Amino acid sequence: MTKGGVRYYPGGTTVGNLFTPATAPRTVRKGRVVVHNQVRPVARVIRVGRRVVYRTSGFPDVYQGQDGFRFWSDVRRPKYKVCDCGWAPHLPRHYRLKGTARW
């Protein structure tokens, strides 16, 4: 979805009963950068009784929407700052909003 030049990545896809979350894009078009918000998801295990029903992961393996984490692509703007948080290590660089907390 595109709005005002910003391309928002979807949250994931569902096929049958299997949900595949959207992870960091593998490539970015020339002239665009990948940006994320200030949320940093943490790894955790969700159990029902003794059975593990769901695992979440921390950086770098987080997906769109995990604990409020969001990412998008946009043209480079002054409000974006190069980020070194470890998310998307396969990209040469990615950005975060200026003025947001560093972890």
Strand content: 35-45%
Q: What ranges have pLDDT less than 50 throughout 5 or more consecutive residues?
A: none
The counted number of beta strands is 10
Strand order of the largest sheet: 1-2-8-5-10-9
Helix content range:
under 10%
SSE series: EEEEEEEEEE
Mean pLDDT: 75
Roughly how many Å is the radius of gyration? 15 Å
**In terms of quaternary structure, what is this?**
single chain
Task: Compute the separation of the termini in Å.
Answer: 29 Å
- Tell me the major beta sheet: 6 strands, mixed
- Structural class of the helix and strand makeup? mainly beta
Number of helices: 0
Describe the structure in your own words.
A hairpin with a 2-residue loop joins strand 6 and strand 7 (51-56). It is built from no helices and ten strands. The chain has one domain. It has a six-stranded mixed beta sheet with strand order 1-2-8-5-10-9, with no helix packed on it. 0% of the residues lie in helices and 41% in strands. With 103 residues, the protein is mostly beta strands. It is elongated and about 50 Å long. It has strands spanning 2-3, 6-8, 12-15, 18-21, 32-36, 44-48, 51-56, 71-75, 80-83, 94-97.
